[in-house]
Design goal:
This protein is of the alpha+beta class. The chain has 5 helices and 7 strands, in the order αααααβββββββ.
């Protein structure tokens, strides 16, 4: 990852990765709503761990299937590294920077800072049912789209000091659609924007 690219990614990332009670502002952003993110740059991928991600990149008859599979791999890697970061409260010792850029990276950093201040972390991992739905290979940075059914029921917010689990707010949907934008930078697909849609349950 060049310094120039890392510099570009500084704006605002995935402030919607979590949802919680006491610190709902932090957690309920990635999980619940439909707020907008800003943009800026970043970079590279690898598959997902525990979460059940049913990744499908359209059947073998799809001429774009191979590239969509790469988009999905990057998306799964982004989540794998995000789960590590939210469990420890820091992106250090993770490869989050390799799989995300722009708002998807910067909002994550903002969330992690808020969580650290609130003394909370995430335990477990979310479930996924993701599919690479769009692909546009034109332009300087080709774009792909991923639609995911995100399941928060196996991803809990805990108080770091006491280990106490903080339940999600009653109005917080535990399963809903999340849409990701993925871009190709220097040969590497990167998640650049994540848009949760709490109104679309799945």
């Amino acid at each position: 990852m060049t310094k120039a690219r890392q510099h570009t990614r500084t704006n605002s990332h995935h402030r919607r990765l979590l949802a919680a009670t006491a610190a709902a502002a932090i957690v309920a952003t990635l999980t619940a709503g439909c707020t907008k993110h800003s943009d800026d740059n970043k970079a590279a991928p690898s598959p997902s761990p525990t979460p059940t991600t049913s990744a499908s990149a359209s059947g073998s008859t799809d001429p774009q299937a191979a590239e969509k599979a790469k988009v999905l791999t990057a998306y799964n890697a982004f989540w794998a590294e995000s789960v590590k970061a939210y469990a420890t409260g820091t992106e250090k010792n993770t490869k989050l920077v390799n799989y995300s850029a722009k708002s998807a990276f910067n909002e994550a950093l903002a969330d992690l800072a808020k969580m650290k201040a609130a003394g909370i972390a995430k335990k477990g991992s979310p479930g996924h049912r993701a599919e690479a739905t769009t692909l546009d290979m034109s332009g300087e940075h080709p774009r792909g789209g991923v639609t995911d059914c995100l399941d928060l029921s196996t991803w809990q917010t805990v108080n770091i000091a006491t280990g106490e689990v903080r339940p999600y707010p009653s109005e917080q949907p535990l399963r809903y659609i999340t849409v990701a934008e993925v871009e190709l930078w220097a040969g590497q697909w990167l998640v650049v924007k994540l848009t949760p849609d709490g109104g679309r349950k799945c």
